[in-house]
User: What shape does this take?
Amino acid sequence: MSYAITNEIIDIDQQIEIIKVKRKNMKEYEEQFIHHKSIEHFYDCLKKLEPEDNFLISKIYGKGRDTVISLNSIIFDSTYPPITPTLKKLVDHLSVNLKYHKNICESTYKAVEERIHELEFYEWSILEMINICKYICADIDQISDILNLLKQTKTYRLQKGTIQMDDIDPIMKPNTTIQNNYNAPIQQSMIQSGHNNTMTVNQINNQALQQVCNQIREVINNSQEPNPIKQTLNTDINNFENAKGNTERKSALESLLSNSASIATLWSSLAPYIPELMKYIG
Assistant: This one.
């Protein structure tokens, strides 16, 4: 089934598929936790510690593994149509649970990390499980970014009741008034600084678009991603900026979302710019 109930700028179902893929990550994390417990003899390493330190540091395994098991189940339940038949139910159900489990995972690894630094107790298995918990939190952040993007869709807002079906037609039409064209923060800044005295509305829009695209290029080029990935993402943003029409621009945005959403660290930096790009699609 498709969760979208009207035409959307982004592919809702594609974004949900990206969330589903995170279940694979959770299974891999669980296997790594088990490996460090058994093969690396995690609990044997703790025997030399005082009881209170033993108890605290042992949480990195217990809380960490519990988190990935829970998240695996939550992602499945939240993306299973009989349980969450609407986009709003999916997003709301997942949002609440993600925040809860991230708080547990993050507070646990930070407490353990702080204590082992104080003790100068740097066992390999402990350090690796701390890193796994950081990866878990990064995955949660990426899912949260996707959920925030989905909350901006017409489908979600219709189901939430913030817009009505009668509002859909105006939303789908391109902005034609000066007031609508001045909605973006970048455009407002340009107008307030006097650009509107010498430039047409289209020129202001084009310059604002160029500015936000340049900001995105800067994020991409300053990232630690391999050059082929940077080239792919730069091609996407170039295609978006130079698109001849709404269809081309929408296709370029979907490609950018698809190519970047699976890269947790980069996606968190790009996500704030996505709403700005969406304003240039009628």
